[in-house]
Amino acid sequence: MNPRKKNEGDPSYDDLRIVPEAAERRHDDRISPDVDLPCTIEGARVVHILGLSVGATGMRVLTDIRLPSEHAHITLQLGTGGPSVQVEGSVVWDDEKDFGIFKRTVSGIHFDRITPEDQRAIQDYLRKYLHREHRGNS
């Protein structure tokens, strides 16, 4: 999702928050794993990963709260028995969704602080995931 320009009369625009410096310019493709990767973000009870960047530079998540713009502390478990990685990121865009009985927020997060080891761990996980998916569809 790219940040949208203001369109008068577009009621969804008011729900879309774009951090000024971050007209999110994603340099990597994003993979949407169809497996549930355990992830915690400080303050959120519900976190579902919608996509991870191939270069391990960010992710798109669905949460039960609107995340603060900066310093989201994130723990990501890379598969069953896989490594756990710790990152700190900033929300570069978000979009609130009202489902009537509950609200959720979809957010794009850029990883501001990630160790080279954790970045490689995410990249390795995604590479293995794509390899399994490719073999399964052959």
Describe the protein in words.
This protein is α+β, with helices and mostly antiparallel strands and 138 residues long. It has one helix at residues 116-136; strands at 16-18, 30-31, 39-41, 47-53, 58-63, 72-77, 84-98, 103-113. A hairpin with a 4-residue loop joins strand 4 (47-53) and strand 5.
Task: Label this structure with key terms.
alpha+beta, 8-stranded antiparallel β-sheet, 138 residues, 1 helix, disordered N terminus
Separation of termini? 30 Å
Structural class: alpha+beta
Q: What oligomeric state is this?
A: single chain
- Tally of individual helices: 1
Largest sheet features:
8 strands, antiparallel
Shape: globular
| Elements, N to C (H/E) | EEEEEEEEH
Supply Rg.
15 Å
Strand content: 35-45%
By DSSP, the count of extended strands is 8
Mean pLDDT: 77
Helix content: 10-25%
The stretches of 5 or more residues where confidence is low (pLDDT under 50) are 1-26
Topology:
Blueprint lengths: L15 E3 L11 E2 L7 E3 L5 E7 L4 E6 L8 E6 L6 E15 L4 E11 L2 H21 L2
Antiparallel strand pairs: 1-7, 2-4, 3-6, 4-5, 5-8, 6-7, 7-8
Short description:
The protein is 15% helix and 38% strand. The chain is built from 1 helix and 8 strands; from the N terminus they run ββββββββα.
